[in-house]
Structures
1.
Amino acid sequence: MDGRLLIFSGSANPELAKEIATCLRMSVGRALVGQFKNGETRIKIHDNVRGCDVFVIQPTCNPVDHHLMELLLMIDALRRASANRVTAVIPYYGYAKQEKKTAGREPISAKLVANLIRTAGADRVLTMDLHTPAIEGFFDIPVDHLQAGPLLADYIHSMNLSNPVVVSPDAGGVGRANRFRERMGANLAIIAKQRPEPDTSEVLEMVGEVEGKTAIIIDDMISTGGTLVEAAEALIERGANKVYACATHGIFSADALSIIGRSDLIETLITNTIPQSSEASSARVRTISVAPLFAEAIMRIHKDLSLSALFS
Ligand code: R5P
């Protein structure tokens, strides 16, 4: 790719952007990302970007709409300032759970967000662990979709937990849990859950042997914490000795951290796609960094190299 590599950040996760830039031995580009007095988002790119290969790092985490708007306006500003190529780096893609209609007269929000990002002028998207891979197809531009699973699995593997069993907390996560299990050389258990209403979950049934084992629940995101805590209770009831959890995106909405803090979970491992408050460590939540992986992906995209090596 012609043009200098530049990195900019919105206000959603500047620490991650800085870490990625450090891995690439560069600094985050200078930009004003703020608000006008009337509440509208204000963007001003200070550095010259003409002809450059620009990556904008912005997970669309809470406040989702605000962070999304910052991303859209930054892309627009870069486009109008004659950047050669703009890649939206979205480590956590908000609205991903609204990827289909579950009832009549509902929007498909994840598709609308994809349209907005494209319309703003993004040439590519780099993201991680989309709630469902089908969201890639909502974009008519290239999407590189990284996975945190190998990082999380290697970390858990290094803990040498005795007699581990990897647990999918719902039917939709079986593929993810199976890849994790293969990497660790452990067995698999599957929980069937139901959601009587949005943001509540109930364990229906479990398949697989967990008695006397160390269970590791693997999920893509933790929002209310309900899925995780219900799963941990069900595992302890069925005789698991200890329960750990892993997820890529620590959203921790409402009182999720206090629920997790009071639960049977020994430790919950997440990544830094979303910034965390200090409350997370008191809930025994440990964070590992995805910055080196994103930095490598950005360098490979910039140099037009394959990203396949990052998935092994
Ligand atoms: C569901 O399909 C997802 O994979 C997660 O299990 C879910 O989003 C977690 O949400 P919560 O923490 O609110 O139960």
Note: The longest helix spans residues 64-80.
2.
Amino acid sequence: MTKKSSSSTEIRCESPSHKRPAPFEEFWFGAAYYPEHWDAATRARDPERMAKAGFNLIRLAEFAWALMEPKQGRYDFSIFEETISRLAEQGIKTILCTPTAAPPRWLTRRHPEILRVNADGVPLAHGSRQHACHASSEFRKHSRRITQAMAKHFQGNPYVIGWQTDNEFHCHFAECHCASCQVAFREFLRGKFGDDISALNRAWGSIFWSGTYSDFEDIETPRHAKPTYANPAHLLDYHRYLSWAVTRFQREQVEILRKANAAWWIMHNGFFQHLDYRGEFSRDLDLMGYDSYPMFAYDPVERPSKHALWMDRARAWSGNFIIPEMQSGPGGQGDYFHDHPEPGELRKMTYAAIARGADALQYFRWRTCRFGAEEYWCGILDHDDIPRRRYEEVVQVGAELKRVGPAILGTHVRVDVGIAGADAVVSAAHEALSLGLPSPESTQAVLHKAIYEAGLAGGVVHPADDLSDVKWFFLPHWEVFDPAWVPKLENYVKNGGLLIVGARTATRNLDNNVVAETVPGCLRGLSGITVEEYGKQNAPEVRPLPLKIGKKSVPTSHWYEVLKRDSGTKALATWASRHIAGESAISFRKLGRGGVVYVGTYFTSGLIESLLPELQKISAVQPLWPKVPSTVEVVCRQNAKRRVWFFLNHSGSPANLPTLPSGTELLSGKKTPASACLAAREVFIIQETRSSR
Ligand code: GAL
Ligand code: ZN
């Protein structure tokens, strides 16, 4: 049994949380493999080398539709059948993918209407991938058919243990404006507004510019080709619709797979735009997957902190995840080619991912292909099939994971400082109407970097998620805010949490309309302030608007707000120039055992640097581990029974660690010394001996 429960419904991702471990009892390790790209002799050699690398799981078939169904209704699974048994002989299991990211030419030729249509009204061409529309009933029919055929064929195969649906929905782009989408968008809106067109008109404020609709049939998807800006409520509901359409598309596949074999686990590799991964999309699955490509961070110095952010974002949606694709060499396509990971970098990136929530991991890809759009996207093996240093590194990781895997499964990543994230509506609402201000994600990245560099245990957490262990929680400029989240945040504060709210939060409602109450709307009571005046800072270089924290003058940018404090709310900072000199800029309200800080401007790295010491005075948060050099990343995974510490040296020189947790260092299998020198690009993974600390 590979799942924790025999009932598929029990282990579905019912309650997504950043603390949810993957439902696995063994650590799955392997690669994405494309046997269809290689001749029979090469295919015959592969499984043994995979086993030598410690692989126990291979992913197959996500782009192989044309091979598996060369003509409509004629199926041929022989290559996969052969591969699965050869892998099984080496003790390696398989997960299959539904191949719907690459519909075959016979299908798009017979049914050109299934091609997605971009915002200019142009149908996408056949010839790459992700060209078919998820709302098309014709395409959905073929998706169900190929899923059913695969499910039936592999139903009783004991070596197939799970599935990936499709491949990276919305990875290249999310929109579609085809004829099917017009119909499906109306269906979605009828459902949302209970078939009441006046409810839609009210929610969209369509009285503006004579936009009133008399019938759902009048409504179209919002295209580019407008004389000017579209209605932000229309745009937001369109983005919700995109998520709804893919969720329905995926559910049809999931239902077929679950019916065929209830023991299979099912995941999808996300996270892309306009898909709500805290919603039904993920709840239909057993867990989410995240494809990790750290070399897209081109600056090697920035790479570790960016990688940490990407992992933390992935975990925020529904908890620990599988990495179905982890970069194993330089990636190249079109006009770019990545750095080659330096010796030790691949192994270090692997552990950095596991540290932050990867509970299973497969490299992309086993061997570099010699043709196609990704003929320079390097895998573990090179084009010439000769195993070199990347393979040797993977072999080393495979052996080490035998010890590391059991220790980390069942644990979650400790988060002391949470930054709000993982909300598709908040992101889409900003995209629909940004006023040229930084997005919630870009501010989240700025905060995350500062927290990472301060050595604090940072993470990304949704405000509706479990905040019980979180000491500080940042809400960076979430214009759209659900009032339903407020009571929970109030409890969080009363129980000792420090909530830090950024300017413009809760200024728009769930329809993307401006709220009627004085800003910050539903957060007014909790924050203990109102905003009396606000404005954009379009040229802070020539018209600076610093604020004063104590005696320190701190430059600000993007935005200013003048705060009016309720009695009992203190000023932590005041504006220091122009017509607002002396007015409150940052406030603090004590509430219960915690408090709320409201920041009347945007979080920039300079502002955060000056703010952190103030927050420390209110509620101290210690670095995760003391006296750690700045190049060493420390992460802690824990549960009620155990604590596992990761120390990752990201630099090319050794790093001194004057103290270490006492326990066993799992990579070496040795008892940890009191202090140690961590070699360049080396890693310690320490399972702590239970202590009272
Ligand atoms: C991923 C995708 C793979 C491959 C890889 C490298 O996003 O899932 O199929 O394209 O990128 O480009
Ligand atoms: Zn469409």
Note: Residues 1-10 have pLDDT under 50 and may be disordered.
